[in-house]
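User: Before I run my own analysis I want an independent prediction to cross-check against. Here's the chain; please return only the structure tokens and, at the end, one sentence I can use as a sanity check.
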Amino acid sequence: MIGSTVINTNPEKRFRQGFRHRVFWPPFLLLLGSVLFSLLYPGDFLQWLTDTNREMLDLSAWLFSITAFGMVVLIIIIFLTRFGSIRIGGQDAKPLLSRWSWFTVILCTTIAIGVLFWAAAEPLYHLNQPTQGSGANPNTYSAMRFSLATMFMHWSFTPYALYAVPALMFAITYYNLGQPFSLGSLLAPLLGDAFARRWSWLIDIIALYTLVAGMSASLGTGILALAGGLHHILPELTGGSLLYGCLIGLVVCTFVISASSGLMKGIRILSDLNVKFFIFLILFVLITGPTVFMLDLGLESLGDFLVHFAERSVFSGEGADGEWARQWTVFYWANWLAWTPVTALFLGRIAYGYTVRDFIVMNFLLPSLFAICWITIFSGTTLHIQFYHQGLLTLLQSSGPEAITYAILETLPWSRFIIPFFLLLSFVSFVTAADSNTSAMSSMSTSGINPDNPESRTSVKIIWGSLIGAMAWILLSRGGIEGIKMLSNLGGFPALILEILVAMALIKVIITRKGRAPANNSNDNFVKAKPPR
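Assistant: Structure tokens:
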């Protein structure tokens, strides 16, 4: 039995925070070096990253695929076992957030801005070039069904399983086993406390490096999309360094302020607002768009997705469709994995007071169902327009993926109001994802973080936010955004290894507990932590 810990809640006796210099400076300097190299030698930098990324996917595609599928299987098994009744933080732990607030923060942390634009654009690629194994001819109804099923594969259950496994493990180790706020804590049950204390800083460095690169790339592509939307509304407003700088400054200031205000204020309030925006837009497009078509296609595609889920999950790229798998599915797994370590810390931190089964519903099931609904409506509308009216594929090739969303919204009633609303939604979506991850990155860079003292200094959040914004602006101004995107994607490989080890550690914890909740649902052999403030 592990003894209970009593955590002091007196603000005058909080643990003293310190700056983790060896965690902060290596990724900070490496990122600056990467930016300089990409600016001085843009062609060589991008070519090297592209070749390295291709080599990584060629050699380890099978491992990415089987791991992604394995995480889905593992999280479902955990849900069905008695381990699911264990309460994060101990038997008497009271939830930090209401169920609605918890769900909105989770959804906004993980959804970011990607699915807002790719839900409209990605189906066109799959419609025009379905795999040979699908048996569908390009630009046919069967190709549409394959396209939507592929979207479900890339954006629903598998990505959220990749997030849920390390996030659950961190919640258990942080609140129930008394481990520090570090990625190394995830491996303590598997490799021992000594390993976690000695090497956690190195794991934190790698995770910070890849996440900052990923957030910079995401901010850059998001700014391009926002600038494109502004140009759509005001044709005289063209993109350029000044416009990019103003938009980046606005986004960075907003998410730094939100992150600095803490979980219960800025992050929670913005997430609540953002999800209500999501729901409004979903209902609007559902009612005013091709309703019957999108629902029919969505239901058929969901069936196709579920029937072929295992087969397509382990499709690693051998044979005639090998290049397609590496460019799409395996590439997605690497990209999702690059974000999982740091995001998992935040998702685990906010799970206090709920059971493991509650955690899986909120972090795996509900966000996946939301993604399926969003994709059914927006991807279905895209496919309807392209199949019956044509033109979107040509627009995609000439103007890029961000133009597709605005073209779709133009076909709906009251587009004059809906397009600015969508711009606001895109802005808030990135802010709500960035503030959560900025909070987690800042906590990783700070010593003394614990359930009683969960927030890092505002100055650290400002530093990370400013670095992300500066990188995005420099790369946008010099056209180097593709390089930093590829750099972030390379972080998927070390994150893959970490994901596998974390899954093994979680399995060990479950086996040690023999998969059973303690008698009378008490968590006596787990540390009982008091709620974080």
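Sanity check: The first helix runs from residue 21 to 40.
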